[in-house]
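Example record

The entry below shows one chain as it appears in the dataset: sequence first, then structure tokens.
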Amino acid sequence: MHLAWALPLALLGYLVWAADGDLGFLWRVLRHRESSTADYRWKRAARVAPAPVPRPWPTTDGCGAVAAAWADDGGDTFDRYLGHGDARALVVIRDGALACEWYGNGGGADRPQAVMSVSKTVLGLIVARAEAAGRLALTEPITARLPELARRDPRFGAITLAALLDMRSGIGFDEATRFPWVDQDGPRVYYASDLRRTVLTRPRVVASPGGFHYNDYAPNLVGLALERATATPLAVATQALWDELGAAGPAQWSVDDRGFAWHESGLVLTARDLARIGQLILDDGVVAGRAVAPPAWIARSRASVGRDEATRFAGVALGYHNGWWRLGEDLVAMGRYGQIMVVAPATRTVIVRLGGDHPRETNVALASRFARLAARMGYASAGAR
């Protein structure tokens, strides 16, 4: 065989071997490589309908106050910053009312967007609802629902659902994406043909539970345990939540070839409806007099332990607990490419920013900026009184 053919064929053979013979997975990895906020357009989807009785947000004329508070941060104007930063939606909720919203770059109030790892935050709420219904317990070991893991390594028996939600499971995960891509943890999860099988066979215990290590196997292990405990697909559980929230827009979960959701990154929804999740924190989980989020989820999300430093990005200390990042007293949901939700209890403010693949700042810089914006709006309100 001519050398010009031998080398490419040898490389192809290696890639097929490294992909465990899964040609669909191999094609997706080589075709797409890096993730994108547009991936939901080619992935399969399990859809969630708007609530039968949507609850529109009360509105106030607050964009002037938002723009004034923004101006105190220096730099570009409010509109210019968002427009030139690949933002598609910004929603600001103050005291339970829609104070300001902005859309551009193809975004719109009724246009769902991929929220990437913000999915982990919403998953935590859905798991808490299942726990409140008596279907599972955060204190139980993952092996209670997934005994296959214990047969592979008894150390999985020390890992609880809570440790997985808190990213303190001791399971290894390499976030790097580099050639040849197919043999790395990130692509193995994000492009899986059979994600259930992937999370049952690929994760490895590398340490005892306790230390923080961000990990995309963790939410999918929780999701598989949730599915077995409730005998319910994630989209069905989300639909029940959507109905109780009074969500006005549709949503969807991206799913693999067998219909299992990407629990770590697969949620697609509107900025207005994502803000409803944040508002639950401020309203003690109650919507129209009905308990939608369990008190245990509120308490666990806001627990002081969450403020303990888990990691640093660009010198900014962040905590992590129950699917939420913490910036001091503020709770933050963050997804790749600048999908951000800041919940500021001190000023009863929720800020959601969604966008495309090219934000002008890092996630932690965006989160910090919006946390400052929420604080300034609180100061302005106090001054007005």
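Notes for this example: The two ends are 83 Å apart (CA to CA). The longest helix spans residues 363-384.
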